[in-house]
Amino acid sequence: MPTNTKYIDALTEIATTALPGYSVLFGSWDDVDRLLDRAEYPAVLNILSVSGGGTYRNGRVYDHQDMLIAFVDRVPRDASGEDNFSATERMRSALKKFVKALNKDGRFMPVDQYNYTTIYESGANIHSGCLLEIRLTDAVGECI
């Protein structure tokens, strides 16, 4: 587990509050199938930060991390287009609620834009949903 859990803790808290009834998980790409195998669906999976950086301004460093967050629900194997569409629409709605709650929270700079990839019948557990790609920047920089 990384020593700086600020992002993990914040995202877990925001997702748990904004999406009651969803399992909220954290792990690496190597853990995805194992974690989702044990999860109750629907689920939010915060995947380890894929990259990051920072901005130095007025004696403070504003860290940012590029995150991948999956919003998934179980679908039957060889699900119909209607089943997959329904699951991805539910997860897209959950994604929007999450981003709204993230912006309201105030620990990070407001998110004006994000990208997501649609997931259809992926993984050993056969789930569909959305994979959110988002850059989170500290709202309050660290004094150096």
Shape label: elongated
What is the CATH level 1 assignment? Alpha Beta
- Overall pLDDT metric: 86
Q: How many structural domains in the coordinates?
A: 1
Structural class: alpha+beta
- Stated plainly, the CATH topology is called Alpha-Beta Plaits
Number of strands: 6
Radius of gyration: 16 Å
The helix/strand series, from N terminus to C terminus, equals HEHEEHEEE
How many separate helices? 3
The major pleated sheet works out as: 6 strands, mixed
List the quaternary state of the chains. Answer: single chain
β content, as a range? 35-45%
Low-confidence stretches: none
Distance between the termini: 25 Å
Q: What's the helical proportion of residues?
A: 25-40%
Level-2 CATH architecture? 2-Layer Sandwich
